[in-house]
Amino acid sequence: MTPAKAAPSAMPRPMRIVSPRLQKLYALWLHAADGYRMPDPGRIGPVDLADELPNLLHVEVVWPENGAPSRFRYRTIGMALQRFYGSNPEGKYVDQMPNPLFRRIAGAAYREVVESRAPTCQTQRFYKDFWFAAYERLLLPLSADSDTVTSIIGCIVPKVGVVKDGKEAPLEQEMAAVLTASRKG
User: Fold this and answer.
1) How far is Cα 168 from Cα 171, in angstroms, rounded to an integer?
2) What is the tens place of the pLDDT at every residue in 76-113?
C-alpha cells in the first residue's frame, strides 16, 4: 500500500461516540484540525491529553519505500492499557504481537484509519465462560503534511466484568457486591 492522497478538506463522517471521555478527545481533534482533514501531530500535545494518558496509545504508520503494505508501530501506550493488554508493546509492530486475534483486530482498525484518513470509533465485546471484556476505541489520524496519515492517536475505554443471570456486571460493581455480602455475613 502506498500512501493515499487526501481528498479536499471535508468533515469526517458521523460517528456514534458513547463515552464522554472519547467525545471530549474527538472535540479536541476537531479543534486541532482547524479546517484541515487531519491535524499535524504537533497541534495536539501531552498537556492537551493529560486526562487520557493512562488510556492513550500513539501508533506510528511506517510507509516502506518498496510499496509494501504499511506497518504500525506502538510509540506510546498508557499504563491502564498496558495492564489491560498484560504487557507493554511500546516499540513493537502490530504484526509482532503474540496474540493472533489482537493482530487481526488492531491491524484492521489501523488500516481503516489510514485508508479513510478519518477518525473511527468502535466497540468490541469478548466473552469467555462467565467473564467479559469490552471496550470503546476512538482512533484519530494525524498527518505531518495534511496529506498522508503519519501516526494515529487512540484512546481505549475498557470494561471488564462478569456475566451473571444473563446480564453484564462490571468487575468493580461485582466486587462491591461481594464485599457488602461478606460484611453482612
Assistant:
1) 9
2) 999 998 987 788 999 999 999 988 988 999 999 999 99
